[in-house]
Task: structure prediction
Amino acid sequence: MILLDTSFLIDYFKGVQETRNLIAGEECCTTVINYHEIMAGVKRIRAKREESFFQRLFSRIRVLRCDLRAVEESSDIAAKLAMIGREINALDKIAEYSRRIRESARLRI
Result:
């Protein structure tokens, strides 16, 4: 399963061919954090076409929830990365860990 982040989703909307090639025939998901970032952006600029596009897209792919476990683990990841001088956006850490939890739970079934 491929996790689509906010930047990827924006490029996909813009029609960047590489994004379409990368996910062709693949099962994809995103997170509620990415959903929030996209929808807040399109609503802020009142972009009805974009809002409609993303609502359709989000209704067709799995949207992973964020929970306390994901936030706790992402804070551990953030601390470890900071200690070695390598930091990434906090929302990206939460989104990735949330995907990992769902994926491992699916594999155990």
